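Lecture 7, part 2: worked example. A protein chain together with pyruvic acid.
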Amino acid sequence: MIIGVPKEIKNHEYRVGLTPAAAKEFVANGHSVLIENNAGAAIGFYNEDYVAAGATIIDTPEEIFATAEMIVKVKEPQPNECKMLREGQTLYTYLHLAPDPVQTELLVKSGATCIAYETVTDNHGGLPLLAPMSEVAGRMSIQAGAHHLEKAQGGSGTLLGGVPGVAPAKVVVVGGGVVGTNAAKMAVGMGADVTILDRSLPRLRQLDDIFRGSVKTVYSTVDAIDYYTAKADLVVGAVLIPGAAAPKLITKEHIKNMKPGSVLVDVAIDQGGCFETSKATTHQDPTYVIDDVVHYCVANMPGGVARTSTMALNNATLPFGLALANKGPKKAMLEDQHLLNGLNVHKGKVTYKAVVDALGESLNLEYMDAKAALEI
Ligand SMILES: NC(=O)C1=CN([C@@H]2O[C@H](COP(=O)(O)OP(=O)(O)OC[C@H]3O[C@@H](n4cnc5c(N)ncnc54)[C@H](O)[C@@H]3O)[C@@H](O)[C@H]2O)C=CC1
Ligand SMILES: CC(=O)C(=O)O
Ligand SMILES: [Mg+2]
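Predicted complex, written out as structure tokens:
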């Protein structure tokens, strides 16, 4: 199979779909790998590293999209990339379609087979291709939050860990999954006073065991959100309903009741965000202020530590990517329900129910079961 890796074009996005090591695995399995000129150069993966791995350097994204049978990316395709996709071609990347009608419509129009990293599943009820980036974003959320609590960044001037004689900052993490756990680890490490809210009692039990008393766990209700957000210095939004638009758990009223100079980091922004006041921001201009509350809503946080993130992402995407290339997409998905769960769009049909639930009416989409769609 011919695998194509275009350079990422989102704002300050320096990750790349394949590392040289991953490219070498595809080549070792008998595939051709095309890498766009300098696709990984910003993070120390140079053209010569890819050439040494057996890949070919290609000058333009147009040539890559025209030639490759499978496009491997990191972020969702931008409109000009969507327009280069075609039927019979596979796209393997993050998509986050539920909050993105423009992209959904363009992918449906393209006819391409579009597999979303974030909806591939595993045997333990997890999302193995989302998890590495959730680990990164969760850890970064506390760095970002601590930074924006500084006075010069618009924050209240509060040090996360406090000092002897001064109480630490209160960090509230809404959603105790992968992002939430990694955020809590960093916040605890910095000495903050950490509370995790989740609506899954089994998950709260696990967190209680992991943190052994160093965080408080609270069952997530409207009342709990009212109480904890009003007291917080930093709130991290980390909820997820897989593939669906994030629930708006923190409302405009909550924001009004928060302390001036407190900070919100909405990691769930890639699924539309879990604060009512959230709108996606970029690494270049990451924050804005509403009612004296600093909002950080960067939709590609791991792009900020692109070298670590690219390696972590490739560790997870490589086995499924090789299966797609070695068996062909249809056979690979039919033989692996977890990979099939990643299929969101195929030959103009939307095959992921939560996307149709979010956008079906406005875009006039019909849901088709993934297995049935693969037969058309
Ligand atoms: N902005 C960025 O750069 C990145 C964003 N993300 C996003 O972060 C979000 C979280 O991802 P993960 O931690 O991997 O998901 P996860 O599935 O591991 O955890 C989500 C948690 O939210 C909880 N939850 C669901 N509804 C809730 C509610 N109403 N109240 C309280 N808790 C609730 C679930 O029980 C679960 O424990 C996702 O939207 C993901 O796409 C992930 C990586 C990077
Ligand atoms: C998961 C995601 O949106 C990211 O890594 O950018
Ligand atoms: Mg206020």
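The first strand starts at residue 2 and ends at 5. The chain has a mean pLDDT of 97. Keep this in mind for problem set question 3.
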